[in-house]
Each structure stands twice: as structure tokens, then as C-alpha cells.
Amino acid sequence: MKLQHFLSVCFLGTFIIMLLIPGPCTATFTPTNNLIVENGGMTWEYDEYISGLDAVFFRDVVDRQTGNNDSFVNAWELLNMELKLREQMNESIEKKPDVKFNESSEAVKVLDIEFWLSDESLGRVRKSSPIENKASVTYSFEKEIGDNTSLWFLGTPDSEVTITLPEGLDSNRTEGLQNKTTIQKGKQMVLKGNFDSEGEITIWLSENQDFKATCSIYAGNDSKFLENKTIENKTVENKTIENGTLQAETGKEVKLPDITGIYSINSA
């Protein structure tokens, strides 16, 4: 998701530059990206932290674009901005996809887009207190990822990124992931680093052989368990009661009580 700060040239991705900022400007901000990859899709979570004059400018943008320009941001104006950003984000991704599956953007569909603008934005426009905004985009893949799958991401140049892979898959080859570090989080591989100066990252996935071997062992044990249960069930089904005697699993005979005369009627 090519999300950038509200004050940047691309203003939360390229989709609001024409809407809010007619020309380039500079700003300091701290954007982070959290990509959670699953077998059939992924979620791209985005956080940006702004403060000082940047925060003042952001409040002013909300007040002018979705409010009454009275130098005060209320909850209704903030909600309208969230809805506006959601719509603009969807249009932006349609025009310029930010995720590709095996080099194809057609194999990726957007399922949901959410924005959460901080309540710290409320109040006087001239406030310089920090603001932390969040966004999330959920995608689906046309088929499940697996060995030799490639994923391409378009993000904010030089911004921090964390990519969490599903269990059973690793990524030993990447392009565009600067300052790369790899950690193991339980059974999942996590890649950390920064987008390159072009804002592009490509990762190639491979099966984790240890995980695959473990799954094979469990599958074999499950098969033996089911086979044994089938044999046990057949053994129980074949047991019969003959002459009031039940052959128990222990090999001992259990004599059943004689109940013949319990319900007899005395006619005398």
C-alpha cells in the first residue's frame, strides 16, 4: 500500500495529491508498514506519526476539506475525512496497484479498506500535539501462495516495513528490502527492513523443509491412529452376547445377571 504522510508529495499514496496539495512540499514524519501475509491473501497495516507544525497542517486540511473552515476540528469532520480517504484509496489502488502476485496485479483483489484518524486531531487547528493515524487494506489472492510464489509491494520510499509470512513458508530471496533482518517468530518467518528509494520490494517464497517434514510425521501418525480406531470399532461390533456371557476386551468373561423372574406376575 503506497501510503504516505498527509503532507508528503504523494499524500497517503498518490491519490490525494491533486485533492489536497496542489504542489510538492516537504515534511518530517514517521511512517511504518506491517504486512501480514496469509495463504490466501494479506493485510497491509499502516501507521504514521506526525507532530509539531505537521500536525497543525493536518488538522487544517481536515477542517478545510471536510469541515466548515472555522479553525476547529469536530468528530463529524474527522469521520467524513475517514470516509473520503477510504474512497480515494480504493480509486488509487485501482489505477495503480500496490501488490502483485507472481508479477500480476490481476491476481490480487482488494476486500476492505479502513482508516482510523486519531482523536488527537480533534479540537483547535493550531494545536501542535502529536497525531498517530492508522490505515488497513485487506487483499485476497486468486490462489494460495506456495513454493516459488513471488509477491511485489509498492510502499513509501525508505519507510520501515515488517513482513510476516505464514507457517511453512520462508523467503530466502528478496529485492528492494534495505537493511534486511530475519527473525523467527514461533513457526513463522518475519522480515524487517526498509523500502528502497523506489518504494518497491519483491520477495520469493519457498517451503520450509523442517515444517514440511513435521507435517508429514503428524499426517502419518494420524493415519495410524485412524487405522487403529477402525480395528477397535470392528472388534467391538463383532462382540456378541451368548448364553448370558459377554467376552470383554480384557479377555475375561462377564456373567450377566439372571433377570428372568423380575417382571413375572403372581396370579395367586
Write structural notes for this entry.
The longest helix has 29 residues, at 209-237. The strands form four sheets. The protein has a seven-stranded mixed β-sheet. It starts with 16 loop residues before the first helix and ends in a 13-residue tail after the last strand. The chain has 268 residues and is an alpha+beta fold. Residues 5-27 and 259-268 have low confidence and may be disordered. It folds into two domains: 14-207, no CATH class; 213-255, no CATH class. Helix 2 crosses helix 3. The protein contains four helices and 16 strands.
Give a brief rundown of this model.
With 268 residues, this protein is α+β, with helices and mostly antiparallel strands.
Which structural class do the helices and strands define? Answer: alpha+beta
Task: Please give the order of strands in the largest beta sheet.
Answer: 5-7-2-1-9-12-11
Shape: elongated
Largest sheet: 7 strands, mixed
- How far is it from the N-terminal to the C-terminal residue, by CA? 95 Å
Radius of gyration, whole Å: 31 Å
